[in-house]
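Re: that backbone. Tokens:
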């Protein structure tokens, strides 16, 4: 089983999307994305938009080969939408992919009206029924009955369990670690790896929220005692407080705790938590978002400056070979798409084939990309 996390707060966007590749199936869970419409009174920063665009393109690409799609619920950061805002994923962009694979979707009960409508719109756009997958089992795939979104009884989500060769993976979106029965369900499934949303600490400013804070912490400890690999992300990592909470959990827990970026062996980009600072470091001209919406402005002006400022301010540290790496030179000469440095070098991605060959002192040609492919045009 190969698990690739595509989008989550520690990768720079809202969501909990991932791909699970089995020997004969490729399952894409929660193919959606958002940037958080307003935080601290600020709309998404252009740098967030550039990172979000790249993740959205990656989700679209991954969906092309998917055999199964799972939708845990119909919040705008978990599914493709008929009327997306400029930062979300539209149904039109992935219609062909969605038309040819199995779709396992949460049922229409215990959904807020907007989510029910999105579900209907998806079914209509694809011109097919979306059967309720809650409680269903299909060989290696199994789905829970609906469980609470946080503590909300009337707003529910569906969890998934995937098995291959005795290894069990659980995806538990938006449960926020707040409901005992949900935690029980996860533990009964005896998973090896769990990918779960942590508590939205940025909503818990009042003393009356102390109970939720304690519950979430106790439940995180409980999961970490029995689960070998626990990946916590999403609501938790939208604030600096959440990032600190996760670090404390890593020090306290019995087993390994990750955020999505840790699991993918690269540096985190907590862009929503850093939004206010991004505005301070790279201010926007008046009416920027309106101009962007009308297609009158190039967001890429902020792309290079955004990466530079994160390095300068110590938020990220590039790969130690970056300054002497031909990938940097080729990118600066305009011979190579920025994709490679942004997804490998600048986030110190340990999946880089060049990095490992460099560490072992093994010869590798200058025209070899970080994924090991040879790009002849570079010579
Ligand atoms: S290509 Fe690989 S080795 Fe070179 S700087 Fe990027 S991550 Fe490091």
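Recovered sequence:
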């Amino acid at each position: 089983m190969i698990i690739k996390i595509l989008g989550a707060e520690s990768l720079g966007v809202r969501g909990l999307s991932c791909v699970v590749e089995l020997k004969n199936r490729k399952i894409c869970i929660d193919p959606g994305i958002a940037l958080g419409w307003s935080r601290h009174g600020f709309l998404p920063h252009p740098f967030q938009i550039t990172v979000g665009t790249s993740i959205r393109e990656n989700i679209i690409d991954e969906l092309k080969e998917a055999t199964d799609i799972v939708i845990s619920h119909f919040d705008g950061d978990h599914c493709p939408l008929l009327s997306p805002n400029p930062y979300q994923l539209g149904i039109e962009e992935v219609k062909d992919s969605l038309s040819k694979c199995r779709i396992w979707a949460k049922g229409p009960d215990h959904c807020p009206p907007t989510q029910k409508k999105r579900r209907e719109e998806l079914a209509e756009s694809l011109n097919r029924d979306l059967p309720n997958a809650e409680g269903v089992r299909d060989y290696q795939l199994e789905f829970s009955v609906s469980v609470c979104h946080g503590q909300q009884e009337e707003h529910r989500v569906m969890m998934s369990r995937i098995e291959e060769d005795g290894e069990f993976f659980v995806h538990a979106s938006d449960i926020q670690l707040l409901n005992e029965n949900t935690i029980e369900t996860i533990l009964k499934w005896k998973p090896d790896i769990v990918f779960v949303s942590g508590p939205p600490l940025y909503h818990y400013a009042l003393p009356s929220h102390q109970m939720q804070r304690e519950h979430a912490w106790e439940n995180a400890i409980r999961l970490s005692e029995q689960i070998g690999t626990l990946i916590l992300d999403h609501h938790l990592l939208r604030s600096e407080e959440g990032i600190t909470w996760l670090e404390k959990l890593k020090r306290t827990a019995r087993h390994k705790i990750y955020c999505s970026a840790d699991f993918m062996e690269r540096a985190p980009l907590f862009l929503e938590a850093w939004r206010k600072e991004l505005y301070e470091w790279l201010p926007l001209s008046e009416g920027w978002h309106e101009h962007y919406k009308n297609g009158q402005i190039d967001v890429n002006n902020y792309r290079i400056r955004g990466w530079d400022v994160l390095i300068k301010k110590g938020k990220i540290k590039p790969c130690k070979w970056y300054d002497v790496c031909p990938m940097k030179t080729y990118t600066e000469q305009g011979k190579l798409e920025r994709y490679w440095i942004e997804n490998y070098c600048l986030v110190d991605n340990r999946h880089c084939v060049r990095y490992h060959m460099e560490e072992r002192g093994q010869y590798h040609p200058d025209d070899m990309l970080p994924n090991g492919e040879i790009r002849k045009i570079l010579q």
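Residues 124 and 130 are 10 Å apart (CA to CA). The two ends are 36 Å apart (CA to CA).
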